[in-house]
Task: structure prediction
Amino acid sequence: MTRAAPPLPQALSLAELHGSLSDPVLDAMNFLNEVVGRFPDAISFAPGRPTEGDFEPADLARHLLTYTTYLEKELGWSRDRVRTQLFQYGRTNGLIHELIARTVANDEGIHVPPEAIVVTTGCQEAMLLTLRALFAHPEDTLLVSSPCYVGITGAARLLGIRVRPVPEGPAGPDPEAVLAAVRASREAGERPRAFYTVPDFANPSGASMSLAARERLLEVAADEDLLVLEDDPYGFFVRTGPARPTLKALDRGRRVVHLGSFAKTALPGARVGYVIADQEVIGPADGRSLLADELSKIKSMTTVNTSAVSQAVIGGLLIESDCRLREANARTIAHYRTNMDTLLGELERHFPARRRAELGISWNRPDGGFFLVVDVPFAADHRALELSARAFGVLWTPMSDFHLDGGGTRRLRLSCSSQSPEEITEGIARLAAFITAQLAATAA
Result:
C-alpha cells in the first residue's frame, strides 16, 4: 500500500517577514554580487571588485607562518599559546588590533590606542555594530551623502533607522548642505545623530572632498553635536594629485568613527575589517569606557569574534609590509591609475567633446579610485542593463540603485578596478555601441 505524500508546508508570506526584505536596496547588493555570474561572457564594469593582481594561494600559508613566527619569536609566546590563539574562540575585539593601530599610524597619521579598535568580519559588520550602538531612539536619524553606498543604507534599513539623504555635489558632500540637513532634520522633530560619507573617490560617484571641505565638515560636526562615520576603502588609490588626509587624521574632537577594511588594500577573501571608535562613553556612577568597548558587547551577540585564522593571515601580511600598506600597494595603485586613465581615454575616443555635446552625454573625471558616472539621455535602468548585457556583452550598474530620492535614473556607474586595460578598451567599445543603439531607439 502506497503511503500518501505528506502535505507541503504552508508557504511564508513576504508581508509577514521583516519589511526590509521588500526594500530594493537589499536587492541591489545581491545584484552587484551575482550579475557577473549571470552573464559570464560579458565584460563587466558592474561590481567594484579589487584586482587579484599577484594573488597566489601559497601566499595564504606564508602570511599565516609569518604571523605565528611573530607571536613566537617577537612576542615570546609558547607554541601552546599560539595554538590556542588560532584554534579557539578569541578576544571579541580582535587579535591584531595592535598591528592595525601601527598600520593606520604609518599610513594615515591616525594615532589611537589599540584598545580603540574593534576587528570585524568585513567593514559591513563594522557598519552594523556602529549603527546599532549609536541609534537608540526612534527619532535618531542617519544623514548620508546621496548617492550612497548601498551597504550603509541597507544596514540602516535592517535596523529600522531613519535615513535622510544629503545631496552630493561634484566634489563630494558640501558641508553647508550637511548643516542644512541637520537643521531640517531637527525642525522635523528628528535627532540627527551621525553623517555617513566616503570622502575619497566615493562609491558610487567617484567624488572626493577637498581639504577645506573636510575641515569645514568637522567644524559643522562639532558645532551641531554630530558624529561622522568615515568609510575610506579607496583612499590609497590616487590617480592625480597628492593623497588627502582622512577625516580621522584631522579629527581633534573625537567626532569621527573610522570604518576600515582590508578588502581593497590587502585580501578581500579574508573578510577582515575594523572600526576605530575612540569616543569616550560615560556610564552610571561616572564609569568610563571607549565606544569600542560598547561595540564589543554587540559583537559578542552577533559574530562572537572575527575568524582568528583570517586575522592571522592579515596580521602576517601587515608584518611582511612593516605595517605600511600604502607602500606595499604601490603596484596596485599603479594598476588602478592606469585603468582609470584608460577608461577616461576610451570614453573620450568614442565620444569626443562635440559629439557628446550633441548627444547629451557626459561623465566625471575622478582623481582616483574605482568608479565614475556617465550621464545619458535615456533611462539607464535594469531593463536597459539586461539589453546591454545580452545584446552588447557589457555590464554596468544603474545609478538609481544608489539614490534614496528617486534620482539617478539617467546615470550609470562604471567600475574599472578588476579588468585589464585591453578589457576596458573592448568594454567601452561595446558600451559605446549600446549607447548609440539606445539613442537611435529613443529618437525613432
The CA atoms of residues 4 and 10 lie 17 Å apart.
